Amino acid sequence: MSNYTFPKGFLWGGAIAANQTEGAYLEGNKGLTIVDLLPTGKKRMDAMLGNISSFTPQEGEFYPAHEAIDFYHRYKEDIALFAEMGFKALRVSIAWSRIFPTGEEEAPNEAGLQFYDDLFDELVRNNIEPVVTLAHFDVPMNLIEKYGSWRSRKLVGLFETYAKTVFARYQDKVKYWMTFNEINMLLHLPFLGAGLAFGEGANKKQIQYQAAHHQLVASALAVKACHEMIPDAKIGCMLAAGTVYPYTCNPEDIFQGMEKDRESYFFIDVQSRGEYPGYAKRFFKDNDISIEMEDEDAAILKEHTVDYIGFSYYSSRATSADPEVNKNVTGGNVFASIRNPYLAASEWGWPIDPKGFRITANQLYDRYQKPLFVVENGLGAVDEVTPEGEINDDYRIDYLKQHIAEMGEAIEDGVEIIGYTSWGPIDIVSASSGEMKKRYGYIYVDRDNEGNGSLTRIKKKSFGWYKNVIKSNGQDLEHKSPLNS
């Protein structure tokens, strides 16, 4: 018997993003966006870091987001499967470039607005609460090419217009909103996170933190608009979370771990507390970073803080002040981390740390004292289809079972958690690698890394398992579901 009870009305479900699922990249008058320029292969990481040679797709390259898993045309089929599992919520994102293809139109694109009307209607019809992210690694390409993306103040007003447009349109259908997905990704993969491309000799830190300021102001203005336009809605921020452990008890390592945590917490400190923390001001001073601010920015940030903290958790990290120790860094992870000798790792080198999930949730709640929403958690793995057409993903069940149990313990610790939407409930294109073989879903999609396949959906063993988790409100994690139940 578990030592915890999940709250009544807990929002169990899954999370996807427009750029990794929808495809139909030019359909319905949609404009180009960030992921439409991210190919598979070796060039992808270079592009995500901001080294972009062209602002148009190139002949001979494969761009997996262009078709993705064709959710744009197949969403009813997929939502029916989510409903069969008993989902209470589905986290999605709106593609900014479907609503304003260049980001600068005077009137929004009706075809894009209608698509999300239809999508939200289908969710509501299936008793699934839409949880909607305004910007999930998504900036209209025109704004990147013309203004340099978020380095320009111009984007603050354009984003506010976009936010107000979708709030007005969907105010009766959507009650949970988030502003920017994994806003701290701007520091790690600046093009993927914020559409930032760099020329030769660019002062990257200066550009990144100026862009961050513009995003933080835009986030606050979206919060303001949401509170005014949809008073009964909740709007949050979103962090790529994962506690950074000091490698040893050497005070230098302890301090390094604190600094690494603060690198991410900075964004949420501003969005949740409404002002720049002292450590950030010192960091700017020590690194000759000068943030241009408008007179009204301080008041905007202070008066329009978020209602809840959304976060993704995949793994913890470890750091050291010793350069020799730092040579032993894990591969395959966006966030550099020393290999933790106490933890196993996924096939992509991500440490598997269920206890770190509980630790991270406690630290976030202690720090902000606002409700948390776990909006991403899951295991990317290679799934094999048996000759009988089955996928026995016990490793995924084991990963999720351990993490959900630790989330339950965090709730017992007193942490207020709104819900849990595991990442990629259906197989989708990996944001970091562009692969399809890195699968997270309860539902297999027949598509490979080169874009081949029928796109047929197949239930995995974890489908029935998660269905039972939801049915029992998290009390039955041991149930071994027969395949395809």
Largest sheet: 8 strands, parallel, barrel
Following the backbone from N to C, one meets helices and strands in this order, namely EHHHEHHEHHEHHEEHHHEEHEHEEEH
Mean pLDDT: 95
The CATH topology comes to: TIM Barrel
Radius of gyration: 21 Å
Q: Helix coverage percent of residues?
A: 25-40%
Domain module tally:
1
**Number of helical elements:** 15
State the CATH architecture.
Answer: Alpha-Beta Barrel
Shape, please?
Answer: globular
**Top-tier CATH class:** Alpha Beta
Strand order of the largest sheet: 1-2-3-4-5-7-9-10
Portion in beta strands: 5-15%
InterPro entries: GH, GH_1_N_CS, Glyco_hydro_1, Glyco_hydro_1_AS
Protein name: 6-phospho-beta-glucosidase
Keywords: Glycosidase, Hydrolase
Pfam family, one: Glyco_hydro_1
Looking at this protein, list some descriptive labels.
485 residues, alpha/beta, TIM Barrel, eight-stranded parallel beta barrel, 6-phospho-beta-glucosidase, Glyco_hydro_1_AS, hydrolase, GH
Tell me about this structure.
There is one protein chain. The chain contains 15 helices and 12 strands. Strands 1-2-3-4-5-7-9-10 form an 8-stranded parallel barrel, surrounded by 4 helices. The longest helix is centred in the middle third of the chain and has 26 residues, at 204-229. It is an alpha/beta fold. It has a single domain, classed as Glycosidases (TIM Barrel, Alpha-Beta Barrel), CATH 3.20.20. Helix 9 (204-229) packs across helix 12. Helix 14 (394-412) links the parallel strand 9 and strand 10. This is 6-phospho-beta-glucosidase.
